[in-house]
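A protein record pairs a chain with a discrete description of its three-dimensional fold. The following entry can be read in just this way.
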Amino acid sequence: MRLVGTLQLALLLALTSWATGLNIPLEVEQLPTIVTYTTGPIIALPFDPTVKIKCKAKGNPTPEYRWTKDGEDFIPPHITTNKTDPTGGTVVLLNKHLINFQGKYRCYAFNKLGTAMTEEIELIAPSVPKFPKEGHPPIAVNEGEPFTLHCNPPEGVAPRQIYWMSLGLQHIKQDDRVSMGIDGNLYFSNALQKDSRKDYCCFAAFQRIRTIVQKDAMAVVVKRDPLRSAPPVRRPSLLLPSGVQTVKVLLKGETLKLECIPEGYPTPMVKWMKMGDKMAPRNKVDRHGKLLTISAVEERDGGKYMCTAENSAGEAVHYFDVIVEEQPKWLTEPPQGQLTVIGSDVHIKCSVTGKPPPDITWRRNGELFRGGQCNHAVYQCDASNVHGSILANINIMVMNMAPRILTRDYQDYAVVLGGDITMNCSAFGSPLPEVSWSKYETPGPIEGDRFSQNGSLQIIIAEKRDSGKYVCVASNREGKSSIAAICFYVFLFVADVPDAPTYLEISEIKSPRNVVLSWVPGSDHNSSITEFIVEYEESQWEPGRWKEQQKVPGNQATAELALHGHLNYQFRVYAVNAVGPGPPSEPTEGYKTPPAAPDRNPENIKIQGHLPHQMDISWEPLLPIEHNGPGLEYKVSYRKLGVEDVWTEHLVKRHSFVVRNTSTFVPYEIKIQSRNSHGKGPDPKVVTGYSGEDVPTAAPRDVAVEVFNTTVLRVSWTPAPPATVRGHLGGYDVQWFRKRSLLNPNKVLDERQSMSFPGKRTHAIVPGLKPFSEYRLTVNVFNKKGNGPYSDPVTFNTPEGVPAQVPILTASNAQKDTILLVWGPPLETNGILTGYLLQYHLFDEPTLEVVDSQEINITKADTTQWRLRGLEEGRLYRFHLSACTRAGCGPPLAQESRTVTSARDGIWRISEAVNTSQSFHIIDGLKPGAVYTVRLMAKRLLDNASIFEDVIQTRVKGERREKLYEDDFSTQGWFIGTMCAVALLTLVVLMACFVRRNKGGKYHHIADPTSSLSVVVDGSDSEEKPLKGRGLCSLNDDDTVGDSISRDSLVDYADGGGEFDEDGSFIGEYSESKHGGSGSAPSGPGPVTA
């Protein structure tokens, strides 16, 4: 036996095999087969007195059992047995010592032929969950900073639910700022004063063990900077998860949960996306956008996901690499047991799938299989990966055996005439025997379309001539010499529906409308009668239609019938048995009942008022057979409730009536009685209803308003008298309209709004008002018919509110210690503008921490610019500007800028803003022979990310490229002549440059304030090269003069096509220049034009 491609095991014997599911009768000696066992994991609950681990197998001889725990032999302390299986049973573990029995168990069922085994059964005995006793010092945090309250809930029996509540069991409110993570911790994106409290409690609930445990209360103290009116703006980062990327591995079918909890001020908002693909439609975003869930994940749900946390200061991202894997599972079905004869080949195919691909282990009788010959044995295919395992027991039976018929001899079968019947013939042998049937009285096999043989014999649409004895014969090649045939006989009986009853007779008992019907039952045809059905037909209303009157038990042959009057009846009866209903009897002669008064009154009376001065009454009429006589009509009686004693009566034939000229919405008593020409029905029941509604006639009184704040008020009123509502009260409408803004009282407005408040009430809350405005408000009552009149109007004013955010704030004209701020006034002042609040913060650039903060109150309302003085040189500042009224200051708008730096060695210097459409920039004022690091950066300095960076060395004035000779040759004649020629050529070049300068004009660049770049230069005289792999270049215009380049000479290159290559390095200078010149990037140290 060997492993083929890790999935196929071959038992090399010889000849042929039967690869079928093994189903051997227990009468035949066979291998053990696991019938049932407890699948893991088993969670032992604290209140369970015992834990039972079941393992039951079948086989011949009867299997015995042994157990292992964590791979070692285990003798159970208690085993239950029963009479039918004395060697098997259930392992019983007492809860008292259950903690000692935690582990992974495996059951082995064995007899002399082989051993079957179960998968591992894990037993978990969790202890009662509880939080450790520990002190929690108060958590102190500055306002605006993030903090986390750790729950660290204990493990316990799933499912576990976490709650954050106060000691008074009030839930801690969660929103986009405060939320609980999957880990149970409570995260605060930024701290506010209202977060200060002493009773933050974490509760863990375990439903299965009905237990809730509580962690000791935690206290939080939020400190506020008295110099600030609001926390400083802070760029988002993530409290959870940490790092840049998280790898998430989960199983197919599980629920994917990705969580991003940000911190920052203002509170960041979280967005989700799947990179390169659409999000699954099953996705759901919970917990204010911080939790993304996808139920029942599939392999296509894997990939890279990104969450983005964003506020006004910036954004932070985190990537999730989601990998969907799968536990081992069978590709089609587990491998089946096989029965084969001696000398045949047997192939066992173990086809599994999973991710990662499962490893397959083969065992024989529970032991690792290493090859060899095969007789009877149980083979185990065990497929496993990191997520679990599956196991199949494959019984291989190798035997030669003559046929053996296992069905009991002389078995009786009963069949209904025309029905189908199957006669069993279970036989076993090896090879599998062939089974044939014959009828005892008729030689030869049974043939015909009504007969089907597949081991058993099926007869379709049985006939009476099919009754008799049948013989089943089983044979194979092993039984010819000793056993020629094994047969048994079958007797067949036929059952049918019962015959129709006969001799129906009607007799009166109390009155002509109460009679007794009797009959004689027919034959039951070998199946007892279960019931009789009495039917009637009447000739007046529905002649020829038979209806069920009554059911009678099968052991009774009479029925007492209550009949309606003034009808001509006929009756018939049929019987029912297990086969079905039989045919009906012949109908009786006609039986006519005398007329009588109606037996009941109409039901489902409805009273409605479609018009104000009438009342509509309708009801459900009697059925025609309930009239009991000719001349059916209805007496409608009504009177005002509590006012009138005399009933007003009307006789009508239809089933509706309209009472006209009623008072509006008045209660009435109504009753309806049936009557015909032979009398009245029983006394009717009285019902109550109302006449028609009309619109209300009165308005609510004493309307008053209480202004809560700039946008919300409470309105109250005294309800209108009930009599004036004139209908069922629907509720109240509140209307208000804004007459004018108090900032511009001469301009008349007409902004109308309304809200409806259903039911009986005396007050309502009205939202959505605008600050510093004059309003007018009315209230009216309404019913189904419409609205009542408006109340007397109430005029009121809303107080001033804080202004809206200023629309724009710019920082410009930066000097070493001053910056000019310019802004626009708020679009919505919501009151009289009193000035502005300016706050500015000094940042430490490497850490982006606030070093110093200042605040200025600008008291002139018409101020739109302010120059800040006394700032530190070359430092980064953030400015917050809020507009203010007497009610306070509105939300701030932020802007960043920095002061200018004087050039100093080793200090970063920043150029003016460079327009993004520009392809070059002049850097002057550099030292000759110095090394500089040059960076091209985005204007948003807090991003701290350079677009381009390189190291450049300037040339020394008059420095030559190379020495011509090592010895002194300045006195040689040829040298003196050469220098004269060079001097003359230099004079010509200088004159040409002077002419071009006058022709080109002064070059000047104005940076676009909305879209710009900055060039940052770091100067150093050392020989260090800060950027590994960058070229060390010379910054000069020619080979001799290091600082003679003129800005004016670059005007003609303004349209040049400079570009960057893929790694960010500059690869072209002033390409396609108007003067036909060319520039190329240097390789290694050498001059470069910048």
